[in-house]
Predict the structure.
Amino acid sequence: MGRAPCCDKANVKKGPWSPEEDATLKAYIEQNGTGGNWIALPQKIGLKRCGKSCRLRWLNYLRPNIKHGGFSEEEDNIICSLYISIGSRWSIIAAQLPGRTDNDIKNYWNTRLKKKLLGRRKESNMNRFASIGAKDANDLEDNSYSPALSSSALERLQIHMQLQSLQKPLSYNNTALWPKLHPLQEKMIQSLQSLNGSPTHLWQHAFPSPQPGQGQKVDFYEPPTAATIQEDFARISNKRVSHEVESSLHIVPSSHNSMAFVTGNNIPTDSGTFVPKADGIEHESIAGIEVSAFQAELDDFLNNRTGGFVSQDQDHQMVELDCLKEMNSSKDSMIWWSNDFDTNSATSNSWDSTSVIQSEKMFQDYELGYNL
DNA sequence: AACTTGCACAACCGCCATTCT
DNA sequence: AAGAATGGCGGTTGTGCAAGT
């Protein structure tokens, strides 16, 4: 037999909490604790609330030492870096910010921080893409490929690029520093320019795509590299990225978790030159991080969803498709951030005591690179 | 002054892993 | 061991307020 239902949903009050309800709940918990059973708690104290609602109210609002609003620049940096590294794992991020709740951080991210970062990116792109035919920044944001990617993966890539671009501000105005494009990408741009100023897409510059074995200079707007991802994790764990990560980070195991991954025979180096990866085989994961949600997304897109182009022009579509397929064939050189990671490598929902954010040097790169 | 729009935040919903009977 | 409750989490929605028209 199981247990009795947690609450009678028909007789449960919803909506904002009154000061009286808050006072009742707070007084009881401060005196008696939760008793290890949130479901039974509201009945004990005469509140017509669901136990889950009581728990949420306590954790997010009534609990002592909760801070609301007024996020500092340092907190902004921490949130950004952790979001880029681990995605929307708000409970983990919140654990690194004393007094902050996951709900608070989630709201702050969704309403302010994300806009702040992506807004800057949009503004910057206005300058960069003006010379290659994009009519306005909306063209850049409204790219027709993005629906094929998970929003989280795309968003994190965009933000990562934004951070990189802010670290190299002079690159914006110097087209010579822009990455060399794959020939098909160049072809695509030329085609777009010839087609009555059709929208130009983020990807054209987001993915410089070198041929295997060929060095290609990438001075700007490179996707997150193996090195940068390693740096992210090294900062977080104060260790080299390795199998130690799974024991030092203690990420929550879940079927819908997020984690960065790296794949590819050709990985960009710190200097921006692509070199073949030595083994060419054992590249499916780093630190137990599962491969390739993006790969799956791209495959899916190319195999099943090519009808999704917004362009009305057949030639235009074919050029785009050729380019995408070519990029896909060079996918081993891609490094991406996925939405899934190895659930076997994760063990709990807390960061260990060696943590993480206490490291003095941890965010200095980002702090030097940008002011949020 | 009235209405609309956008923003920030609180709360709810649904899913999943764990715990309990 | 099976099945149901519980706890926890992330995504989404609802609401109140402020700014803009």
In short: Residues 1-6, 15-16, 37-39, 51-52, 55, 59, 88-91, 102-103, 106, 110, 252, 254, 256, 349 of chain A lie near DNA strand C (CB under 10 Å from a C1'). The longest helix of chain A spans residues 102-129.
